[in-house]
Specification:
- The chain is an all-alpha fold.
- It has two domains: about 130 residues, Peroxidase, domain 1; about 130 residues, Orthogonal Bundle (Peroxidase, domain 2), CATH 1.10.420.
- Helix 2 packs across helix 5 and helix 8 packs across helix 14.
- The N terminus is likely disordered.
- One of its GO terms (biological process) is hydrogen peroxide catabolic process.
Length: about 325
Amino acid sequence: MYFIARISFLWLLICANIINAQLTPNFYARSCPKLHNIVRTTMALAVAREPRMGASILRLFFHDCFVNGCDGSVLLEDTPAFKGEKNAYANQNSLKGFKLIDIIKKNVEAKCKNTVSCSDILALAARDGVVLLGGPRWTVPLGRRDARFASLNAANVNLPPPTANLATLISIFASKNLTARDMTALSGAHTIGMARCSSYRSHIYNEANNINAGFVAARMSTCPSVGGDDNLAPLDMNTPNQFDNSYFRNLMARQGLLHSDQELFNGGSQDAWVRLYAKSNYALAQDFTAAMIKMGNISPLTGFNGEIRRHCRFVN
């Protein structure tokens, strides 16, 4: 009886450890040893065709983690049971890269069937997109599982809008256990990628302070006061396809495209960090990678929670 009770206790302990498992870089070392190479190769082909795709996948990962954790929920299509996150205010008509994640998942499934989660694929692809555009590399902790639901309402509440002021940005990031320093470093992701006219129109037409007049004139030429909502402009007009610290130098020159960008350098608490990152690519790389790892650990599903989706857009 003692032996049976001890075995039961050990089994419960093992289960508890699995349920509360920590993410680890070697999670798929045995079950899918070619995973990293598959993701990297597929991303390299995609970014070579369209450099913007690196930024798109990075943004997709960010928007996944900020809504109920890094669980792949942003990838889900609407179902009769829930409205997905793709039509949230901050996502509507702007999130890209879903087809690329589908392709990576298909390639991974061909080698490792029903093994690797979509949320882990997205985390790896985001890292590789940054590296392919000249940015820093970091080790991605793995072992996430995929959510069985998504939430339009949570996406509308948790994602910072491009109109947010500094206090709002700090508050939203703090709710995810990310510091103001983490937030500023992560904003460095805006050194790559594009933004729609509708996201920055009010910033260039309605704000005379803290914005460069020449920059305003250049942006007005592609973003009329009425119409043209889908016209695109680079978040970093100097090196839009190169991950570097040019974004922070732009902020110091009052050339932040989004209102929320320029809020980071507006006589407030983050000015010193902006100056540091504008001066040092090394400092940016150190803080950005640390913040990415920290963000990737927001409420992951592990152990017996969630599932390994067969298709990233649909629950099993």
